[in-house]
Amino acid sequence: MLNIAVLVSGGGTNLQALIDAQNRSEIPGGRIAVVISSKADAYALERAKKAGIPTETLIRKEYSSQEEYDAALLQILDCYQIGLIVLAGFMTIISDNVIRHYENKIINVHPSLIPSFCGEGFYGLRVHRAVLEKGVKLTGATVHFVNEVCDGGPIILQKAVEVLEGDTPEILQRRVMEQAEWKLLPKAVALFCEGKITVHNGKTKIREDSI
Ligand code: GAR
Known about the structure:
There is one protein chain. The chain is an alpha/beta fold. It has 2 domains: 1-102, Rossmann fold (3-Layer(aba) Sandwich); 109-211, Rossmann fold (3-Layer(aba) Sandwich), CATH 3.40.50. It contains 6 helices and 9 strands. It has helices at 13-23, 43-50, 66-79, 96-101, 125-134, 169-193, and strands at residues 2-8, 30-37, 55-57, 84-87, 106-110, 138-145, 155-162, 197-200, 203-206. The strands form 2 sheets. It has a 7-stranded mixed beta sheet, covered by helices on one side. A two-stranded antiparallel sheet has the order 8-9. The longest helix is centred in the C-terminal third of the chain and has 25 residues, at 169-193. The protein is globular and about 50 Å long. The protein starts with a strand and ends in a 5-residue tail after the last strand. The model has no long low-confidence stretch (mean pLDDT 97). It binds glycinamide ribonucleotide (GAR). Glycinamide ribonucleotide binds at residues 8, 10-14, 44, 88-89, 109-111, 123-124, 127, 177, 181. The site of glycinamide ribonucleotide has 17 residues, from helix 1, strand 5 and helix 6.
């Protein structure tokens, strides 16, 4: 059984999707061992507590250097013997140092079809605002491994979602979550925990019997 750490900063609806999937026994190879928040008042922490999952709060500003922050994060991950880190709306940059410790063991969910509308400055509602400004007709979500390039790691799963007339960033965000993120993230986590995802030359391969 793989120990999973879910890193959050906000509402935690993706965390909730993972908790619900776990309760339906859809992640047989793993279990959420800890939820780590970058904000003390993140609603995601309430969701974790309700589900009986241990929580930790790690605020970047409370550490005087990146090294000290990294050491604190690595210590928590070590303490819970974490084998998979899931970034579920985590808004603090993960340093190269931590990424190297967990190569191809950190998964992120991004609310667009990478490589569109991603990279520095593209997070949360800003992504959906940019999508509407551009006028694209299709958007979606991507689950990918995290490497040293922002939103540039190997892609695991993607799903397209329609942009509709009259969409606001909030309406579009909700549709992308409902139709894509909340389905893709638990699925990718389950596949990882069952050892069904491999990475070669920066691309993933998913064992066929699983999809
Ligand atoms: C989600 O839409 C997630 O894709 C996005 O933040 C939201 C968090 O919502 N992440 C990014 O933009 C990362 N670049 P949640 O707290 O309700 O899961």
